[in-house]
Every structure is written in C-alpha cells, then in structure tokens.
Design a protein that fits this description.
The chain is an alpha+beta fold. The protein has two domains: 4-180, Jelly Rolls (Sandwich), CATH 2.60.120; 188-290, Orthogonal Bundle (Arc Repressor Mutant, subunit A), CATH 1.10.10.60. It is built from ten helices and ten strands. The protein has helices at 4-14, 56-61, 141-152, 161-180, 188-205, 214-220, 225-233, 239-256, 261-267, 273-284, and strands at 19-23, 29-35, 41-47, 50-54, 66-74, 77-81, 84-88, 93-97, 102-106, 110-118. A hairpin with a 2-residue loop joins strand 6 and strand 7.
Length: 311
C-alpha cells in the first residue's frame, strides 16, 4: 500500500473497520495475514509513520467482538484505549479491544505481529479484561513463549491445516496463561470504584429485564463473574442480592404510585406473581396487596401500614 486510503481499507479488511488520521508523505505499508483457525488469525504488519483509530461511530456502524494483541518488533508507538496509553517498543505485548474506541500511534517506521482472537477467550477465568487493555503484559515465561510463537508464524505456499490448528490452540493456551498471570495494575482500586459505579447504574437501567443476573452483568461489561462478585462483596452484599433488592424497591415504588401489582412486578423484572409476592413479603413484611403506606424513608422498610389499618 502506498496511500493512507489504501492502508485504511487493508487494515479494515484484515482486522476491523477503522480510519487513518495521518500518515507519512512518502507512505508505504504491508500486511501479511494467516488465519490459523476460525478463532485465531496472525498478521505481520509494517508501515511508515501513521495514526489509525477506531471511533465510537465506526464501532456503532461495524460492531466487532475481538481482541487484538500487538507484538511489537521494530520502531516505537503507542496504544490508547479507556483513558490509558501503553508505549510500544521492541518486545512489548499489548492488548486492545475492538468493541471500544482505540488509537494506534506510530511516529516512524514500525513492524509488529498482531494476533486476533475472540473476546470470549478471556471468559471468567483470566480476571478482568478491562484491567489489561492498553497496558504492556509483564515479561513472564508464558508471555515470552507466546511472543516467540506469534512472531514465528508466517504464510507460505505449503499450508498444513492440522499443524495450523495446533499452533492456533497453542497461541490461545499461552495467551490465557499470559493474561491470567498478569499482576493487577497499581491503580486497580480506582478502576474498581469506577466499575462499581457502572455496574450499579447498569442494574438500575435493566431491572425490567427478567434475564438480568450476575452472569449477564459480567458479560455485558466484559469482566469476570468473580470480579463482579468481589466488587459487590466489598459493600457487604452479592450481585444477586443487590439485583433482587433493587427490583423489590422498584416494584414497591410503582405500587405506591398506583400501578397494579402485576404491572409493578413485571416492570421490576419478576417473571411470576407468586415469586414476587414471596420475595416482597420476606423483605417488607407484608404482601404487595397489603402495602398502601407512603414510601418509606430511604434504607428503611418501616412505617408501612397494611390496607385497612390507620395510625
């Protein structure tokens, strides 16, 4: 490729749709990609100075659910995502997520290998993916072995699907090990506080969805279920308990506003009236049909009066 426009098309075809912001006047670049399996592709990338990015608008138009792993081999650069910046130099290994905006900045000639894998690879066993984005992975035996393998993959005339599938599985295994062994960043406490706020807001926004659960909460934010459980445990509760409490309080508010019991239960995400009634009585001490007092003070399910009673 000899123009930014060609480079944008080539990168979009090889990886995910993106845009080129700037490039060297005498630009040249190349991509040599080998798809080892349905889940793993490895590309050798080289280019002159360039800046590429994937914006929220591009993501909305072309959603993808992959993670890209950069193995930097020559030159310098940077990966920016989620308010962080990872500096690239020879030997750096950095992850970035195609489902969130990112920028790749290369001030001069560079070369790297890029592995593309599904985000589902990180599941709930490798900790929070967000904690690892735009941060160089530490140099561990797993990371060094992964780098050597990824940088040795090359396309050729004699394809061996069996061997390529084995290499793909080896890459996936090493990547799991490399990310699982990565230590928590120094500012992880700040990240956890921010994530907690996002999780709480998500719960309130999706109370009407009967499928809302700790697992779907984790999946929606691309973090592990264990991390979600830890964050809620820090406040003395569990994600399941918090969701149930917020649902009941939402239903109680709707009843006090005059909505029917059935509509209130449905709007709060309860699938059937019996389950709702039992849970409501367990928390508030009275069945929904008997609850007619003014809304209780925040944090206290007291001051209620069943129907027919007066103070």
């Amino acid at each position: 490729m000899t123009s930014p426009e060609e480079w944008a098309v080539a990168c979009s075809d090889a990886f995910v749709p993106l845009r080129v912001r700037s490039a060297a006047p005498m630009f040249s670049a190349s991509i040599d990609q080998l798809r080892l399996s349905e889940r793993v592709a490895v590309s050798r990338v080289a280019s002159e100075r360039s800046e590429v990015f994937r914006s929220s608008r591009v993501i909305a138009e072309h959603p993808r659910d992959d993670v890209l792993v950069s193995f930097h081999r020559h030159g310098s650069g940077a990966v920016r995502q989620n308010g962080r910046e990872a500096r690239l130099r020879r030997g750096s290994v950095v992850l970035y997520d195609t489902a969130a905006p990112y920028e790749l900045l290369f001030p001069g000639r560079m070369a790297e290998a890029v592995v593309q894998v599904p985000r589902s690879l990180f599941g709930r066993t490798a900790g929070s993916l967000e904690e690892k984005l735009a941060r160089p992975l530490p140099s561990t035996p797993s990371t060094r072995a992964l780098t050597a393998l990824a940088c040795s993959v090359a396309s050729g005339p004699d394809r061996d699907p069996v061997a390529e599938a084995a290499v793909a599985e080896a890459i996936l295994g090493l990547l799991r090990a490399a990310t699982a062994s990565a230590p928590a960043p120094r500012d992880s406490r700040i990240d956890r506080v921010a994530l907690r706020s996002v999780l709480l807001a998500f719960v309130d926004d999706h109370l009407g969805d009967p499928s809302l659960s700790p697992a779907t909460l984790a999946d929606a934010h691309h973090v592990s279920l264990r991390l979600v459980q830890q964050i809620f445990a820090e406040s003395g509760t569990s994600p399941a308990e918090y969701i149930r409490e917020r649902r009941l309080r939402r239903a109680r508010t709707l009843i006090l506003q005059g909505a029917s019991i059935g509509r209130s239960a449905s709007a709060a995400g309860f699938r059937d009236a019996d389950t709702f009634s039992r849970a409501f009585k367990r928390v508030f001490g009275v069945v929904p049909s008997g609850y007619c007092s003014q809304e209780d003070p925040v944090g206290a399910p007291t001051g209620r009066r069943p129907a027919g009673q007066r103070g």
